[in-house]
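Good day; I would like, with your permission, to put a structural problem before you. I would ask you to consider whether the tokens describe a fold that such a sequence might reasonably adopt. The full record is reproduced below for your convenience:
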Amino acid sequence: MQADIVNIGLGFLEGFALIISPCVLPILPLILAGSLTGSKKRPLGIMIGFILIFSLFTFLSRKFVQYSGIDLNIVRHISYGMLILLGVTMISTYLTEKFERLTTRLANIGSSFPKVNNPQGGLISGIFFGGLIAIVWTPCAGPILAAVIVQTVIQKTNLMSFLTLIAFGIGVAVPMLAIILFGRQLMARVGFVKGHTVFFRKMLGAVIIISVFFMIYQENGISFVHAGQGNNVPAIELQNGLEKPYPAPSISGIDGWINSEPLKISNLKGKVVLVDFWTYSCINCIRTLPYLKEWYDKYHNDGLVIVGVHTPEFDFEKNFANVKSAVVYDGIKYPVALDSHYITWQNFNNQYWPAHYLIDKKGNVVYIHFGEGDYDVTENNIQYLLNMHAPTITKGNNIEQLNEDQTPETYLGYERAENFSGQEAISKDKTAQYTFPPSLEQNEWALQGSWNIMPDKIISSENNAAIKINFNARKVYIVMGNATNKTIRVNLLLNGKKIEIEKGKDVENSSIDVNKNTIYEALVFTQPRSGILQLTASSPGLEIYTFTFG
């Protein structure tokens, strides 16, 4: 309950801080203009409508996507286009006049609803106006809302999720309401503003357009981070350290420990601590393990403590036995904490796999790195904090280079499925028959035979059920599991032929034997290339979660 209240409080603070973000700029002119007419209650109505509709729209959007199959990225891009069109209209006198004629006709049509459409109205018309603005704004603010949406996902109840969104909306609305009330007083007192309304209208239109392009430029939604190759570090000093180190959050809410008794940050003062957020089916995390294991071997006796905080992406990664098996398989000797309920993840306010937090001997976080890469920088900082001199640093020269045309990670469960291109629509949470299409475009995938599509995975429901994906990559990995108590053989074809030279380490005779939930390496090429990979399950019960590429 306490964590829920903290999340609600964080939602309010995140919303309040959003007033300095450029994503607010496009709607400020709209809200200000809508509040300059009507009674004194209209600004309050606008804010009430904005908060309620924003909260409902965001809360229901995930369910809406699940059951309609509509991509919210498309909705967001449409909203970008609407805002740009609005900005152009405000700049152009000709388009403004046309728009005014159109809205006049619409107003006449809706004249039977005077309380809603009357610009001179009060609370009710303000609520309606604020709700319309919220619908346009919410998709545009997708990247900004990432943190608060994560908070709603990890809440234990729908009520707490909705209250978190309400708190976020109130946080956004409070400073905007102050701006609106100040704007009404300014317009009432300054005659210059009234005499130059055309100029200000065009300026506001330009602000809207510039703000939208800035949002598009800044837009990103990466969860698994790919970082560039680290640079050689010539001197032993703290590299890329935080300007303002802060006390390390606690490691708490842990469901189990591997390789160690329970550890507390407060008991590790005097040690240098590296907290690594990972999950065992994440290929980006797996590629960092050789460096982590080497650092542990080299510096453990000098005072380095590495804690692998295993925060799961899929349900099977919450299973203690599965994680322990992966730890043994990967040869991990340092402590691993199972953060299956995201408590430590929340304590660190983390959002990425993998993520490294380096803590000095005083217990302060002094360096953070998300994703792969910069291994030499991290090792340099470990040595610096350990007061070591004349370092021998492992160069990060074996980092996977990013292929710009590489197929993105492809989730198959309907909650995050994209680029499905079957003959039939996805049937959710039930067994259905599917048919391969005549062809697949790059990054598209399709099913053949009987499958059950679940929120986070697909399950084969008959012998020889198959899946195809058109990919571009140098390596192909598949996260798979087994819902039965016997091994399921998965036969692989690359462009219709058996895999021989290009086979990954888990492929034997162009097939993979799936007997546990983990990540399997299917294909390895010397250079990135395109192809169509087909998987055929020998029997029912094969679980496939995602395709990952490198």
